[in-house]
Amino acid sequence: LVEMYLYFEFTDTVKNLLFKGWNASTPSGLIIVCLIAGIVTLLYELLMSYHEILMTAANNFNARYQTSVSTNRHIGGPRVKLAYATMSSAVYTVRVLISMLLMLAVMTYNAWIFLSVVLGSAVGYFLSPLARRAFRPCIAATFSTAAADDAAVDVFTTSASSAHELND
């Protein structure tokens, strides 16, 4: 039987971390586990910033797309909307996976792991504004290229159908 305590302990060992057999039985092993937990938490916070920027860009694209459809000027189309939805779903799925793994790591009730997750979250949140500034141009470039491709397809399709109507 494994004894389970429902209170935090400052111990230098962790048994069965996330999976059976994943143990940290030395202080140096615990330090490595704590560093990994802190870094994963920091990356989780940065991923949240990326998802936020992605959702803002998707909403802006949808607003512009609706305007362009009403004025008969296409600035992208279904391919771009699909790209936004796919990216958003993938990022969300990774976020959920990471958050659940971090929750399970904290539920080992090792105070050092708990503190490393809290510290990683604080550092990630502190770096979020820098990450947002870095992500914004990347997302804009990615989807403006897809929008340009869609616009080219729209122009080609429109001109091909116009040429077909002229031939009839």
From TrEMBL:
Report membrane topology.
Multi-pass membrane protein
Q: Which GO terms describe its cellular component?
A: membrane
The record lists the membrane-crossing segments as: 28-47, 82-103, 109-127
> Is Magnesium one of the keywords UniProt gives this record?
no
- In its UniProt entry, the species of origin is given as Macrostomum lignano
Top-level division of the source organism's lineage = Eukaryota
Q: What is this protein called?
A: Copper transport protein
The record's principal subcellular location, in a coarse class, is membrane
| Family named by the database record | Belongs to the copper transporter (Ctr) (TC 1.A.56) family. SLC31A subfamily.
UniProt GO MF annotations: copper ion transmembrane transporter activity
Report the locations given in the UniProt record: Membrane
- Keyword Translocase applies: no
Which controlled-vocabulary keywords does the entry list? Copper, Copper transport, Ion transport, Membrane, Transmembrane, Transmembrane helix, Transport
